[in-house]
Design goal:
This protein has two domains: about 100 residues, no CATH class; about 290 residues. It is built from 15 helices and 19 strands. The strands form five sheets. Strands 11-10-9-12-8-13-16-17 form an eight-stranded parallel beta sheet, sandwiched between helices. A five-stranded mixed barrel has the order 1-2-3-5-4. The two termini are about 45 Å apart.
């Protein structure tokens, strides 16, 4: 059941628009408003007692609900904050009882987003009526929203003047207004547009499907390349298939079917406490295993092998840890071969320059200097995407390099590179 409570708004932010509304020059069209609310104690025996007068953080989607003001009575969904979720630690306004019941409506569309829920609303879909195939323009697929800024920055460095658009999918936050990264990248001209696909909503254009969004961006909007991935946060259960990162599988298949060169941006970490996410995350490995066709995967220059000792923890998380007394996983078995069949490439990365850019440089609460491999992998993806735009290719890793088992020392090298005072200050 929904966990809804009545509350009073005690502080109301200016309602800074999301990336889409700001880019479109219409701050009143949408965005996300930061609020502070106090819950109204439930009456009767059925309510959950709350501390009277305790302030709580809340957000409201202006495009759906309109603006809220101090003193308004609102209904908030308190589930995420009560569960102390790291990426969703706030209440979400469900409806404004003071001024929001009549609603504006009038979007002019006849297609529903969030259909058959209490938040269904009409949109005008951008999905093109005519197919122009093959698209022959590249698509990068993200595992996490935290990769977006680094990919976009590296793409702009490698292909100046080329237009990169963002397709937001399921797997993380659904509202397009929730991403500060998108707003910042649009302000700086590092993203040419923002489409929300499927259940995601609130972008500059609404697509019914991910394939429709990719096609519209690359064909009708003239993007030179697209980056496709979930909004902030991620849904996850720790199981091989029960996580938002698996949305990358559908996105990659859509891009391949449309005739786009497809690049998977590897989720990697040198500092995640969970073994299944160190080296190359089990999220990325699972997608690489299940893909129907090979794709391009970029690794930061300096990483010797995608199947070396650094990756054994990740492989074990996907394929099962060896039992005590049994030999370690052999790399010549069928499923790792399905991973190495992809087009693995090396790409140069410049972590100090990205740190100095002022763009978002945190993942799961860790700064760039604490987890350089995460950002190096995303930067490698952006560089490789820029090469695909120009038809150029990075140096493909040879069979010998793929097979060698040398331990990766990239994380230490990158950390050393960032030890200078200037880089630390920039980060």
């Amino acid at each position: 059941m929904l966990k809804l409570r009545r509350a009073i708004v005690i502080e109301a932010g200016p309602g800074a628009p999301g990336g889409s509304a700001m880019a479109a020059g219409d701050p009143g069209a949408g965005g996300e408003q930061q609020l502070t609310v106090e819950l109204i104690p439930a009456s009767g025996g059925g309510g959950v007692p709350v501390a009277e007068g305790s302030p709580r953080r809340a957000i409201a989607d202006v495009g759906l609900l309109g603006r809220s003001e101090v003193g308004d009575e609102v209904i908030v969904n308190v589930e995420a904050l009560d569960l102390r979720l790291g990426s969703g630690g706030f209440d979400i306004v469900h409806v404004n009882l003071t001024r929001g019941l009549e609603g504006r409506g009038g979007a002019g569309g006849e297609v529903m987003k969030l259909n058959y829920t209490s938040l269904q609303h009409a949109v005008e879909p951008v999905d093109d009526e005519n197919l122009h195939l093959p698209l022959e323009r590249p698509v990068a697929v993200l595992a996490l929203h935290g990769q977006l800024a680094a990919v976009a920055w590296a793409f702009a460095e490698g292909a100046p003047g080329r237009r990169l658009g963002y397709v937001q999918t399921v797997g993380g936050a659904l509202p397009g207004s929730h991403s500060r990264s998108v707003r910042m990248l649009r302000e700086r001209g590092l993203l040419a547009g923002h489409l929300t696909a499927g259940a995601a909503f609130g972008g500059e254009g609404e697509a019914i499907t991910t394939a429709g969004a990719i096609h519209h961006g690359l064909s009708s909007l003239g993007w030179d390349a697209a980056v496709c991935g979930p909004g902030p946060g991620i849904v996850g259960s720790g199981s091989p298939l029960g996580h938002g990162g698996l949305a990358a599988l559908d996105s990659a298949h859509a891009a391949l079917a449309l005739g786009s060169s497809t690049l998977l941006v590897a989720r990697m970490s040198s500092a995640d406490e969970r073994p299944r996410h160190r080296g190359i995350s089990h999220h990325t490995l699972t997608v690489l295993d299940l893909l129907s066709e090979p794709v391009t995967v970029a690794l930061p220059a300096g990483m010797r092998s995608p199947v070396g000792a650094d990756l054994r923890a990740g492989l074990g998380a996907v394929f099962g840890e060896p039992a005590p007394g049994r030999p370690a996983l052999e790399l010549e078995v069928e499923r790792p071969v399905r991973i190495t069949r992809h087009d693995w490439r090396r790409a140069a990365v410049d972590l100090p320059a990205y740190a100095a850019s002022g763009l978002p440089a945190q993942t799961m609460g860790r700064a760039l200097t604490e987890d350089p491999l995460f950002f190096a992998a995303a930067l490698a993806g952006g560089t490789a995407l820029s090469e695909l735009v120009d038809g150029a290719v990075g140096r493909r890793m040879s069979g010998d390099e793929l097979a060698d088992g040398m331990e990766d020392e990239l994380a230490d090298e990158l950390a050393d590179e960032l030890e200078g005072d200037d880089a630390d200050e920039a980060a």
